[in-house]
Structure formats: C-alpha cells, structure tokens
Amino acid sequence: MNKTDVLCLALGGDGLDVVMHVLQQQGWQVSHVSGASAALAELGMRRHGVGLMRVGDTTEATLHAMEQCVQACPGMEWVALCDEAFLESAPFRDLILESFFDYQLMPLDWNETLHLLDHLARRARLRQQRRAAVVQGEALGMVGNSPPMQQLRQTIRKVATAQACVLIGGESGTGKELAARAVHECSQRRAGPFVAVNCAAIAPSLIQSELFGYERGAFTGATTLKRGVIEMAQGGTLFLDEIGDLPLDLQANLLRFLQNKTINRVGGVSHLEVDVRVIAASHVDLGDAVARGRFREDLFYRLNVLTLTMPPLRKRMEDVAPLAEHFFRLCANERSARLQGFSVHALAAMADYTWPGNVRELCNRVLRAVVMSDSRWITPADLGLAQTLPVTRTDLDAARTRAERDAIHHTLLRVGHNVTHAARELGVSRMTLYRLMDKHGLAPMTREEMNGIQAAVP
C-alpha cells in the first residue's frame, strides 16, 4: 500500500469527481468505485489504508451499505463525506461515531481535509508496519518475536530436518501441539498426515485400541476392523500429547513400536510395519516421573532424542499484545462492527498479569471479551482482569500518555465539558477528542453532546 493511496467510494451524492481531481493534484494516488458491491470487490482484492465515502442519503439501505464496506476492511481508516443535514439522523450519527474515523461536510474545507488525510496516511503506514511485523511473527504458525520465540523457531527448523523422536516440554497452554505441527510442516513428511492424540483424554481401557487399532472380533462390540492412530499416521507424524499419563503397560507396547517400527492390532497375530515419526509432549517433568517410577526409563530415553521447551507466556510478555491482537482478528465473526480493539487500560492490565494459563488462557479471555464487550474498546473488566495504570516501555512514553490525559481532562473542566470548545482549544476535531476521551477513560458523551454533533466542525 502506497502511503498516499486513497479509495474514493461513491454511495450517492455529488462532488466526488471534484474531490478526486483535487487529491490527484495534491499528489495522492486515487482509486474510485461506485456502489457497495464494487467496493466490496475492490476491498477483497486490494488493501487500502484510507477511504473517503461520499454518502448521498441516510436511508436504511445506505447505512447498511456503509457498514458493510467498513466491516470488509477492519484496519482501514474511513472518512464520511456528507451534507450537514445528514447529521440530523440519529442512526447516521451513531454509525459515524462507532465505525468511522471522522466525517467532513460538503463542500470540503480543503485545509482541514488535507490535514486530516495526511494524519490518516501516517496511521495507515503504522498499520502496514504492524501487519508486516505480525506476518513475520506468525512464521510457523506461532505469534511473537520475543527472543524465546525466535530461538524456538530456529530450533524447530533444525529439529524438522531429522527423523528422530522429539520430546516437547512446557506448561499447559503454551502451545505444544502448535510446535509439533510446525515440526511436521517443516519436515519432509509435510505431505503426510499429522495425527494428534491426547493420552490424558482417553480412558485407560481404550488407549491400546486407540493407539494400535483392533481386528474384527477382538472383543465384544468389535464388529469391524479399526485402524489405530499409529497406523493412521503412516508416512506422517504422530503427536502424543500428555504422554506422561500413559499407563505403564501401554508404555511397554509403545516402546516396542518405537524400537521395531511394527505394531500389532488388538486381537491380531501379524506384525504391521509402519513409517511414522513420533513427537511426544508432557506438561510434567518426565525425568522426575522416571525417578518416581511413574514412567519407563527406557521409553524416556527413546523419546528424549531431540527436545523442544515451550516458554511460558510470563517469560515472553512482549508477545502478549501481538497475541491478543491475533486472537482478536480470529474472532472477526464473533464481534460487532463497532468493537475496534483493546483500550490502553486493557493492554496495561494484560501486561501486568502473570498468565498462569499461558496462551490458552489469553485466547479464552480475548474471546470472552469480544462476545461480552458493549463498548468500542475492550476494557480490563471485559477480560476479567483488574485495571492497572498503563505500563509502557519507557518513562518518556508514560509521561506523554499522562500529559495527554491531563491536558484533555483540565480542558474539559475549564470549558464545562463542552466538547466543541475543548476540541477547539486542543486543536483537534471533535471526533478525535471523543476517541481520546474513550482511550483515557474520561467521562463519556452526554445526550446533549450527542445532539451537539449537528454543529459544524470548528
């Protein structure tokens, strides 16, 4: 995306041709579409950073088209171009407040409009850089660029070139299965199946038949032949999660399979050769389990050839925010159009939490917040976390945040919470001031302020 790229969308009204002409003269690269269908097709093919939406009326159909276009590209900064009379429509005002960065009245005040577009172009460039960092961080399917994660990805690529067993350690919820899948996808077995089984989730009486399968008539109810998960992973990778919960008698059978590369189905007499790479994982220390007599020593050494250790989330706190953003994007179908992301207080609360449930807990909390949030920004309460003061990377950033909040707070007090006057004194648009108030947890708009949006932008 070029930093001077802007999409001009016509949903009725006139004057957009003049707007495009002026923008092109000012050096902007302009794309133009008319109608919601063409806009959705364009947004599906190409990413734009800034959009100008010319609106011709405030009918229900037009409002629906506006909302569709905004939802089609969540990271895009939209500005509505409208007539002043449209601001008398409450649904239109609500949509602008919830889903648009700002609005401009026609005919445009070009000094204000060009200043706004320059600001949005810088925001779009920052979004592009953040997306590039996320893409890099999501290499091998794992989000995060902290030193522990960079080291883990390097180790996975090395481990993937071998055929020996892999043992993955780490606390519950750290993503051991994700690491196992990454090893598989980086290996020469990537074209084969990846079969995962949780040894702790299967009843002890069923584990042997689940792993090795059974012949018809092997026991009551065995009316057909059933292949086990080892056989199903032929030519690929078998992931045995929580292998420390495998009963001792089954450990002996698994050891025999690892040594001979053959299995016997329950009730069968023939040996079946299998070509499977085994990756095992456990949240308990298997070395300690061996010392306690709960895990076979010979099986431990057979599995413990190549090792990976998943870092707990508290050891890579710089990855919390990117992970939260990643899960927020994955919840796109679950969230309302007005939900924009995480408030500064939510980010601070996540940074101050120790995450005993690791990445799994973070994912679950974000999903719950997306479903339960009633505002534009997810709060600590939505996440089920205690609110803390924002913790930023540097004292300078903290000072800037405090100074910004104090300036807004004192200005609002001085002008009697008249947002129009406060915005004029602060040198920002009212829409920007509303967002800053929301960001810093200052008093929300009153009904009178909502009605006051009919006034012209100062």
Provide the descriptors you would attach to this structure in a database record.
458 residues; 5-stranded parallel sheet; 16 strands; Rossmann fold; alpha/beta; single chain
Architecture (CATH level 2) name of the largest domain:
3-Layer(aba) Sandwich
Q: Helical content, roughly? A: 40-55%
The radius of gyration computed from the alpha-carbon positions, rounded to a whole number of angstroms, is: 29 Å
- Biggest beta sheet attributes: 5 strands, parallel
Whole-number mean pLDDT: 85
- Percent strand: 5-15%
CATH class division of the largest domain:
Alpha Beta
Which outline best applies?
elongated
Order of strands, main sheet, comes to 2-1-3-4-5
Structural class: alpha/beta
Q: Supply the number of helical segments.
A: 20
Identify low-pLDDT runs.
390-394, 444-458
Number of domains: 3
Alpha-carbon distance between the two ends: 32 Å
CATH fold annotation of the largest domain: Rossmann fold
